[in-house]
Design a protein that fits this description.
- Helix content is 27%, strand content 33%.
- Strands 1-2-3 form a three-stranded antiparallel beta sheet, with no helix packed on it. Strands 5-4-6 form a three-stranded antiparallel beta sheet, covered by helices on one side.
- It is α+β, with helices and mostly antiparallel strands.
- The longest helix is centred in the last third of the chain and has 18 residues, at 102-119.
- α1 packs antiparallel against α3.
- The chain is elongated.
- It has a single domain, classed as Hypothetical Cytosolic Protein, Chain: A (2-Layer Sandwich), CATH 3.30.1230.10.
C-alpha cells in the first residue's frame, strides 16, 4: 500500500493594498499516521526514516533524506506501529522481526518520549 499525501487549504487573513483584510489560501501539507491512519499536518506528527545503516531513526527535524513513516504525537501510535510491523513494511526494512530489534526499539522509544516531554 502506498502512503497517502493530501494538501489542505487553510484560510489566513492578509491585508490588501487598501489595508482591508481578506482571506488568502495557504497550503498545509498533511501526512497519514501509519498506526491509526489519522491525517494531520506535518508539524503535528513524528517522522521516522531508515538510516544509511538500515536502522530506523527518529527524525526530529523532519528533514532527513529518505522514505519516511509518520505517526501521531502520541506514544500509543508509536507503539502500535511497532506492534503491527508498519515501520518495517513502509520503510522497507530488511528482514522480518530482526529489522526492529529490542535495542533499536528501546532507543527509539527513549528518543520519542524525551521529545514529547520537551514539547509539552
Amino acid at each position: 500500500m502506498t502512503a497517502v499525501f493530501a494538501i489542505a487549504v487553510a484560510p489566513v487573513a492578509v491585508a490588501d493594498s487598501a489595508g482591508r483584510k481578506e482571506a488568502a489560501k495557504t497550503k498545509v501539507s498533511e501526512r497519514t499516521c501509519v498506526a491509526c491512519r489519522a491525517k494531520a499536518p506535518r508539524a503535528e506528527l513524528l517522522r521516522f526514516v531508515r538510516g544509511a545503516d538500515g536502522r530506523l531513526i527518529f527524525d526530529q527535524s523532519g528533514r532527513l533524506p529518505g522514505r519516511g513513516a509518520w505517526t501521531c504525537s502520541a506514544i500509543e501510535c508509536f507503539e502500535g506501529a511497532i506492534v503491527r510491523g508498519r515501520f518495517a513494511h513502509i520503510i522497507r526494512l530488511s528482514g522480518s522481526g530482526s529489522a526492529l530489534d529490542t535495542e533499536m526499539i528501546d532507543e527509539l522509544r527513549a528518543s520519542v518520549e524525551a521529545y514529547l516531554n520537551v514539547a509539552k
